[in-house]
Every structure is written in C-alpha cells, then in structure tokens.
Design brief:
Layout (H helix, E strand, L loop, with lengths): L1 E6 L5 H14 L5 E4 L11 E5 L9 H16 L4 E4 L4 H17 L3 H7 L17 H14 L1
Parallel strand pairs: 1-2, 1-3, 3-4
C-alpha cells in the first residue's frame, strides 16, 4: 500500500512525507510514502493526502492555481483524497488521522487502529464531581502506594 502526498509548492509535502516515513519505519509498517507523485501515477488503492494552503499567511497565485488544478484532476480521475491542514506536528497528526480514516474505509482495520492516536477525554472539573472510573482507580492506586 502507498500513501501519496500531493500539494502546491510550499505546502509542506516533503516534511509530511518524511514524518510518515519515520512513523512507519519506527513501527515496522511496510507502506510506501510517495512525495508529490503526478496524479497520473496514482493507483486506485493509494491513500491520497492533499496538503492545504495554510502554511503561509497568503498563498501565491501559483500555489492557488496548482491547488485548484490538482483538485480538478483528482476529481476527474475520481480519486478520493483528504485535505490536510495544520502547523508542524499538528499537520502530521491530522494527516495520520485522515490516512487512518481512509485505511478503515478500504478494509485495513488493523492499520487504521494502529495509526489512530486517540486521546482519552479527561474530566477537567473538580474531583468530587468526577465520574471517570479510570480516574478514580488511578487516584485510589496512588493513595495506596503512598501508605
């Protein structure tokens, strides 16, 4: 399987591709990450991520035009894609989530579950109003450990 990362110039394609490659290598996931392939090189089972135009305060006319053309070509080819936004690590996290959703729809449940990084919702109110059993267990365990 492949993850293809597309986008206009200066949209962080290469940085995102490098982050995905490092992530997959560290977890011994045998997926190929392709940095800026031409839309004609895409396979039907590729996970396609399109980098959004949010990295600079004002994208140039060329960047807007390239983004528009990429979207049109992907639509004509009927290629499903996800647009990825965010700054720095947030961009990778959003890309990882988008890839996980696409992997899940393609039947790669194990990979989708492995890629998803869900953060548990934690109670932020006063402890006496908390109904989180995990939180209560953790507090109780800490009290026992102090004895």
């Amino acid at each position: 399987m492949r993850i293809a990362i597309l986008g206009a110039p200066q949209t962080g394609k290469t940085q995102l591709a490098l982050a995905f490659t490092a992530y997959f290598t560290a977890r011994q996931i045998n997926w190929v990450v392709v940095d800026a392939p031409s839309p004609e090189q895409l396979a039907p089972n590729d996970i396609v991520l399109l980098c959004g135009l949010d990295l600079t305060s004002a994208a140039s006319v060329t960047e807007h035009r390239t983004d528009e053309v990429l979207r049109q070509v992907l639509a004509i080819q009927q290629t499903q894609f996800q647009v990825v936004y965010g700054q720095g690590a947030e961009r990778f996290t959003n890309g990882l989530y988008a890839a996980a959703l696409r992997a899940q729809t393609m039947g790669f449940e194990a990979l989708a579950a492995h890629m998803r990084q869900t953060q548990p919702v934690r109670w932020t109110g006063a402890c006496e109003n908390c109904a989180d059993a995990d939180c209560e267990h953790q507090l109780f365990s800490q009290l026992l450990a102090k004895k």
